[in-house]
Automatic annotation (TrEMBL):
This is Maleylpyruvate isomerase. Keywords: Isomerase, Pyruvate. It comes from Nonomuraea wenchangensis. SUPFAM superfamilies: DinB/YfiT-like putative metalloenzymes, SCP-like. Residues 26-155 form the Mycothiol-dependent maleylpyruvate isomerase metal-binding domain. Residues 163-241 form the MDMPI C-terminal domain. One of its GO terms (molecular function) is isomerase activity. The keyword RNA-binding does not apply. InterPro entries: DinB/YfiT-like, Maleyloyr_isom, MDMPI_C-term_domain, MDMPI_metal-binding, SCP2_sterol-bd_dom_sf. Pfam families: MDMPI_C, MDMPI_N.
Length: 243
């Protein structure tokens, strides 16, 4: 789609700002959530609020490993293995609620401090994500922004995609659209009611879909149709969850 503030383009400064904003949104929502609610299931299959919070905490620590890699040149993967990642989340979810909350906040603060230490050369250093993608360190704050923004919605504490910044939503849609383009699925053409069009190649003739930025972001991330409609007001094709 064309450039501009709603195009989904993003800079390092954008990603750092969204990381900070997302942390505020997430931890403000968490502060209003009683400990007992953390024991209840979330919309994420098999995960309680405790698992979600442990994941957000572990993600900050994992991304700090990539910052260390960029800062020192010493290879340090996000996780030692997928199995270790799952085990860490399960163990974290079993912590007392106060300890779990403190861990998540401390890990987020530590990641922010480490990111602030990177210089221009280190921002361009190559690191490897848990999915095996080689990216520059400039991708790290975007990866974190996605986690805290989207999981603030998943927390079930009243935050919706409508509460997230419009420029972040546009960047999120562009990011998910690019990833869905590389996976099997229906061809889609998405048009935001406030402006912006994204095309996802796939099987069959492109299905035209319209919705708000928030609705399209919710739909593409596999979190409900969010008022997104197809031709003649019909429902959009179902998509698997993302992130």
């Amino acid at each position: 789609m064309s450039g501009g503030p709603m195009s989904g383009d993003r800079s390092r400064a954008d990603s750092l700002r969204w990381t900070a904003e997302g942390s505020t949104v997430f931890f403000d929502a968490l502060a209003g959530l009683p400990d007992g609610r953390l024991d209840e299931p979330t919309a994420l299959p098999g995960w309680s609020g405790r698992h979600l919070l442990a994941h957000v905490a572990a993600n900050a620590a994992a991304l700090a490993n990539l910052v260390h890699w960029a800062h020192t040149g010493e290879e340090r993967p996000m996780y030692s293995s997928p199995e270790q990642r799952d085990a860490d989340i399960a163990a974290g979810a079993a912590r007392p609620a106060a300890e779990l909350r403190e861990w998540a906040a401390r890990a987020a603060d530590d990641l922010g401090a480490r990111l602030a230490e990177l210089d221009e050369r280190q921002w361009k250093a190559h690191v490897r994500t848990a999915q095996g993608r080689t990216v520059t360190a400039e991708e790290i704050p975007w990866m974190r922004a996605r986690e805290v923004m989207v999981h603030a919605v998943d927390l079930g504490a009243g935050v919706t995609f409508d509460d997230l910044p419009a420029d972040f939503l546009a960047a999120l849609i562009a990011d998910i659209a690019a990833k869905r383009a590389a996976a099997p699925g229906p061809a889609l053409t998405l048009t935001a009611s406030g402006g912006g069009t994204w095309r996802i190649p796939g099987s069959g003739e492109p299905v035209p879909l319209t919705g708000t930025l928030a609705g399209l972001a919710a739909y593409l991330s596999g979190r409900g149709s969010g008022g997104v409609t197809g031709e003649a007001g019909g429902p959009p094709p179902e998509l698997p969850r993302w992130l």
